[in-house]
Amino acid sequence: MSRLLPTTADATTDRTGDPSLLCLDDDRTDDVLAALSSGTARAIFRELNERPLTAAGLADRLEMSIQSVSYHLENLSETGLIEVSDTCYSEKGREMDVYSVSEEPLVLFLGTEEDQPGLRVALKNVAAAVGPAGIVAIVWGVLSRFVGNDVGGV
């Protein structure tokens, strides 16, 4: 029976949404930073940036318990950093959610909402100089370094 059900996912880690700006005085920023405050959560997020995975797949790759992974997946999902992007089935025929990063990239701005107009003008000037692909590459590089820094233990 399991051969009739898909055991692999078709999900990708492509980010096609427009970036959202998170400011220090925004409640969502608090939620995102809290969700990423754990080294374990950051490790899970890094893995999902590489490829979509099931909770069991993440637990295997990170050599962790499925309960610990599931806890962090729930927190990351609640903040919108990751989402269920597909479903596949185990060899025993059990349905499993496949997780991937959200399509919406986030930009953390270390300022307040009052500073946003100045930031938007600066970003437009940079965009005009390097183009949209350059902006995405710069933002992705900065975010990868932020998420890649392992401040806490796993």
Secondary structure elements and their pairing?
Elements: E1 20-23, H1 27-35, H2 39-50, E2 53-54, H3 55-62, H4 66-78, E3 82-89, E4 95-101, E5 106-109, H5 116-148
Parallel strand pairs: 1-5
Antiparallel strand pairs: 2-4, 3-4
Helix pairs in contact: 2-4, 3-4
Task: Give a description of the structure.
The chain has 154 residues and is of the alpha+beta class. The protein has one domain: Winged helix-like DNA-binding domain superfamily/Winged helix DNA-binding domain (Arc Repressor Mutant, subunit A, Orthogonal Bundle). The chain contains five helices and five strands, in the order E-H-H-E-H-H-E-E-E-H. The protein starts with 19 loop residues before the first strand and ends in a 6-residue tail after the last helix.
CATH superfamily: Winged helix-like DNA-binding domain superfamily/Winged helix DNA-binding domain
| Low-pLDDT runs | 150-154
Determine Rg (CA atoms, Å): 17 Å
**Strand coverage percent:** 15-25%
Quickly give the CATH architecture.
Answer: Orthogonal Bundle
The number of helical segments is: 5
Distance between the termini: 38 Å
**Mean of residue pLDDT values:** 79
Q: What's the CATH first level?
A: Mainly Alpha
Overall structural domain count: 1
Q: Major sheet, described briefly?
A: 3 strands, antiparallel
Give the helices and strands as they follow along the chain: EHHEHHEEEH
